[in-house]
């Protein structure tokens, strides 16, 4: 099927949809990008959609493995978020990283597609990841320069104070939960000035924990999520090593059994 409008989503777990489980979707996740595509297709059947994002990918991998594939799809709209997995590494050269990102975004912009990028999230509320806040702030400033230069639109994740509510986050404390992906889909559609019918769920109130119970919860989280995450990095492996892109070719996925929300 030929599509006159073509949306291609690039990136890592953020764009793949980790944290928003859906057994009926490829890789078992749905995510904000699928929800954005669904809204675009519902409003205009000329849209086709591809999602090339794979969890765990670093910027170099995203640029080398996804940019060429995206260009071949002749996109009219591209969303890309890369660099989060680099920022979390023990050492990273943010300036060099963003020079590569600029080159990749320039290639996408040269197709004539509208390009949408994302600032990094403000991790000040995380006891573990707050140490990367300064890196992310530098990343964001350099990204704003790139967006100005390349004519890209920015979805400003850094300034989304709603995400300080932990109910928007998955139990792994690293990825957005379904509610977070719904909120992000709305933010992206608003940036695109596109109509949508996404309603946000009521968030469950989380009871305040005593200091002892909080320490127990933190210890359990470290065993279940932090230790395996650190272990993979020490071994040089990724949770996405055995995965392929959810939607490598332009299509209109069957979301008939899924909620529009």
Automatic annotation (TrEMBL):
It holds the Pfam family Lipase_GDSL_2. It comes from the Bacteria. Keywords: Hydrolase. PANTHER family: GDSL-LIKE LIPASE/ACYLHYDROLASE, PUTATIVE (AFU_ORTHOLOGUE AFUA_2G00820)-RELATED, GDSL-LIKE LIPASE_ACYLHYDROLASE, PUTATIVE (AFU_ORTHOLOGUE AFUA_2G00820)-RELATED. Residues 9-181 form the SGNH hydrolase-type esterase domain. GO terms for molecular function: hydrolase activity. This is SGNH/GDSL hydrolase family protein. Gene3D superfamilies: SGNH hydrolase (3.40.50.1110).
């Amino acid at each position: 099927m030929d599509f006159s409008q073509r949306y291609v989503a690039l990136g890592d777990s953020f764009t793949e949809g980790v944290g928003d489980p859906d057994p009926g979707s490829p890789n078992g996740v749905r995510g904000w990008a699928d929800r954005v595509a669904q809204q675009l297709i519902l409003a205009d059947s000329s849209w086709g959609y591809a999602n090339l994002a794979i969890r765990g990918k670093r910027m170099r991998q995203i640029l080398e493995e996804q940019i060429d594939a995206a260009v071949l799809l002749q996109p009219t709209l591209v969303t890309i978020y890369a660099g989060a997995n680099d920022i979390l590494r023990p050492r990273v050269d943010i300036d060099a990283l963003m020079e590569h990102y600029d080159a990749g975004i320039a290639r996408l912009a040269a197709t004539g597609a509208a390009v949408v990028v994302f600032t990094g999230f403000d991790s000040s509320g995380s006891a573990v990841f707050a140490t990367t806040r300064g890196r992310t702030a530098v990343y964001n400033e350099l990204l704003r320069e790139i967006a100005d230069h390349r004519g890209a639109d920015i979805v400003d994740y850094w300034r989304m104070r709603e995400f300080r509510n932990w109910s928007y986050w998955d139990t792994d404390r690293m990825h957005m939960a379904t509610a977070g992906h719904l909120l992000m889909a709305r933010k992206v559609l608003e940036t695109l000035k596109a109509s949508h019918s996404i309603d946000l769920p009521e968030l469950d109130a989380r009871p305040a924990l005593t200091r002892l119970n909080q320490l127990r919860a933190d210890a359990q989280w470290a065993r279940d999520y932090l230790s395996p995450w650190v272990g993979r990095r020490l071994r040089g492996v990724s949770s996405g090593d055995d995965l392929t892109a959810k939607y490598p070719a332009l299509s209109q996925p069957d979301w008939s059994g899924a909620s529009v929300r």
